[in-house]
Amino acid sequence: MRFLVRKLPAIIAASALLVSLSSCAAGPGGIDGCVPSIASGSNAALVTADGTFGNDPKASFPTPLVAAGASQMHVISDGNGNGKRVAPGATTVVQLTIYDGKTGDTIIATNYDNAGALFSAIDSTPAFGAIGQCARVGSRVAAVGTAGDLIGDGAIQQNSLSLAADDTVAIVVDVQSVYLGKANGADQILKAGFPSIVLAPDGRPGFTFPDPKPPTTLAIETLKAGNGAKVEKDDRVVLHYTGVLWDTKKVFDSTWERNAPAMLVATSLKDNPGGLVPGFAKALVGQRVGSQVIAVIPPKDGYPTGQGPSTVPDGSTMVFVFDILGIE
């Protein structure tokens, strides 16, 4: 999945100053009791940004930067200081720009004219969610480290970036919104006939199927009952989900595997080409934020013949478990 969508022109001129980045001896420091996975550091504080929040940050820093240790972060600005804090593991919406540490040139950025990108604020690569850990909504945060640590080899290749893993990059992140990281509702008793679900500590589901024959009608059950806002038709909803084929027991799609929740429209593709398969839409509308739901979707409530992805053959029964993390 491509997460960065446009390149920006270079805006920084290189200087002759060499700055070496070293790791903080004491590890990550806490921010009002919240401990980020990326330590704050004085070298990351060299990054400044004059652009307005939610727009091209127009960042500058002395060049070349050389990352000689662990990645570092620094809060450039915290907005009005009253925004909700991004707890580790939460889902965050960000705009970001990546700069070449050697030259100061812009490498790539999200599209500031559109909605921000969704990432989990966890210790992983890409680290775009982790950079905002413990910052408040409305904050602008800088991070400096190697491309391998902050972007990851897979994302470098996927976005065709001219970077080696040990090249230094500076990233400026604007934290626009925060949502749940996983369902937090009360556990419910699952009826017989559904796959058994076991959750990993981070919330991702594992499946055990009870019977070789799937149900022939749409079956929906609540695994965790949240008490947040109710999902209405056409809402834009933030979800974590995993989809499994009943016949093969194989995962065909999972936001958990991408470490990036999805923003989906709560409507059927019968009503909106950008919507969901009808069974998923029926399972989603009327549920509350914080809930986790399982839906067994027979072919008649799934993709129309010939319109599903290659990973979902015609006639498949799909099983989705999804966490409702928020409503835009």
How would you describe what is shown here?
With 328 residues, the protein is mostly beta strands. It folds into two domains: 19-179, Chitinase A, domain 3 (Roll), CATH 3.10.50.40; 186-327, Chitinase A, domain 3. Helix content is 8%, strand content 32%. The chain contains five helices and 20 strands. The chain has helices spanning 128-131, 147-150, 153-158, 255-258, 278-284; strands spanning 19-21, 39-40, 48-49, 59-60, 65-67, 72-77, 91-100, 106-109, 117-120, 140-146, 168-179, 186-187, 196-199, 205-208, 219-225, 236-245, 251-254, 262-265, 292-297, 318-327. The strands form five sheets. Strands 2, 6, 7, 8, 9, 10 and 11 form a seven-stranded mixed beta sheet that branches. A hairpin with a 5-residue loop joins β16 and β17 (251-254). The relative contact order is 0.14. The model is unreliable at 1-29 (pLDDT under 50).
